[in-house]
Hints:
This is Threonine/serine dehydratase. By secondary structure, this protein is α/β, with parallel strands linked by helices.
Amino acid sequence: MDYRNGYKDTIKARERIRDYVYDTPLIRLDYISEALGTSVYAKMENMQRTNSFKIRGALNKVRKLSPEELEKGVVTASSGNHGKAIATCAKMLGIPAKIVLSDTSTELKRQMIRNLGAEVVITTVEKRFEVAKEISEKEGMTFIHPFDDLDVSEGQGTIAVEILNKMDHLKMIVPIGGGGLISGIAMYTKGVTRWAEVIGVEPENVARFTASLKEGRPIDVERGETLADGLLSVKPGNHVFPIVRDLVDHVVTCQDKYIKKALDLLYNKEKLIVEPSSAIGLGAILEGKIKYDDRDKLVLIITGGNVEASSIEKIINS
């Protein structure tokens, strides 16, 4: 596949969704920067509409649907944030939506989706896509994959547009689950600059990209326990895998104990409420998995903030 012009589709996606999403802040994390002896920034998608980056890809996809498709509604499978994004889009447009959530999703995320008017269906992580596709076939609803859809990836890639409009010569550190976010970011970044690295970080206990890149194709891994509840996909997306393989500079893993340390720093020192999945990039830095020097600019993608402060405190103090 030729990705050289993929950035042009991301620019079109930005025009398509820009009136509906926020250009989120890009801030310097002063305490963490001083502690690490380099410049660390955070792209604050926890301050995005729906408190997650997922609204970008969801909107780009939904706004491409035909009137006939919109009338029948949409269905998706999600660990929470993508489901909330799809439910938000459906409420905006007044269309039906069903969200198939994994049994690992938090009650907070489930209730937020119900409050938006969407129907919630609970199943296992492994069966969520199967259940969503069955609903799609039975009811004629459009299935919107949370990560293995290039329209969704293009929407997520608009994060990189906003970052690179402000700075270049940087290392973008991206939490990686199924690959929708990092594929969109990499496709835009590598299309417009030679001076930025894209680094993916996944949980050590669900290292589906590390295993798949070694194998040369998307493979399933066993789902282990991890604090990063938004990064539980056991297999990379078939459509996004080759983009990650060809364009992402490095994929590394992070242990839970470093996610916990990162969450502590973000919460107690930088005063940020972020999901554990968002802390994994900083965790990998603390673990020594990402090389840097004092001239570097490390940009953490803070993917979401759909978590209660009490839950963060419980993790930190456990």
